[in-house]
Amino acid sequence: MDIVERLKEVLKDDYGINNQEELEDAINKSKGLDIGIFTQPFKNEDELKAS
Question: Structurally, how many domains does the chain consist of?
Fold first, then answer.
């Protein structure tokens, strides 16, 4: 099974999404993803060090 078929299977089984229209509707209704934590610069040298 290729990746596209596997993704379609997961969307159908886990989310009830069976076609492109249902996928687009689900995406449009989602609240999105806040990626701000991944884009903030470090403030000082201590934040660069792993704990």
Answer: 1
Is 41 a member of any domain?
no
- Residue 1, domain extent: 1-29
Q: How far is CA 24 from the centre of its chain?
A: 14
pLDDT (tens place) for every residue of the chain, 51 residues total:
799 999 999 999 999 999 999 999 999 999 988 888 888 777 777 766 665
Tokens representing residue 3 in the block: 């990746």
Residue 46 lies in a domain: no
Only one residue has tokens 């792993």, namely 50
Q: Is the pTM of this model over 0.85?
A: no
Instruction: List the alpha helices (DSSP H) in 1-51.
Output: 3-15, 20-29, 36-39
